[in-house]
Amino acid sequence: MRLFAPAAAPALDLVDIHGRPIAIHRAGRLTLLSFFRDAACPFCNFRIYELTSEHAALAARGLDIVAVFSASQADVLRFAGHRPRPFPLAADPTSRAHEIYGIERSLWRKLKAIVTRVPTLLKGMRLVGLAGLNTGNLMPADFVIDEHGRIVEAYYGRDAGDRIPLERVQQLLPAGRLRKVA
């Protein structure tokens, strides 16, 4: 079942791909909790590239990022984690966290993304190679969670490449709203 703002964000007991525990919300900060498909997903890897590029600016405005993949630790390390990332990556091989947050599956919406998002697909394929052709039907989703553990924004992808626009995330982070935490 889908979640909506201002519901409490379900608690997750996540560790990153290096075995460190992940905090979903911290005092004075918002968290972008992003659920990704397979570790070899071209759309997902392109989004990880975007989040890595924008991380410093978003973090300076009070945003933490947590990425959760429906994949094994080894696969996340091989694809998204092969380079150091400035935010934690978590492996959810059983998709339990995805289920808790109501993430859906759809072959039709996967195919829709392949047909309608060709430029992004090709950019992502450059990152993952031919492994990007063998992905499941899980859809992406993003949640912005406040410091009290409440969902500020819930965004369920309409297709396999649809993510919350970073402009929307930035709108939730007006200058001076959140204090910076060292």
From TrEMBL:
Pfam families registered for this protein in UniProt: AhpC-TSA
Residue ranges that the Swiss-Prot or TrEMBL entry lists as coiled coil: none
GO molecular function, one term: antioxidant activity
InterPro entries, per the entry: AhpC/TSA, Thioredoxin-like_sf, Thioredoxin_domain
Entry superkingdom: Bacteria
Residues in Thioredoxin domain copies: 3-174
Protein name: Redoxin domain-containing protein
Origin species: Rhodanobacter sp. IGA1.0
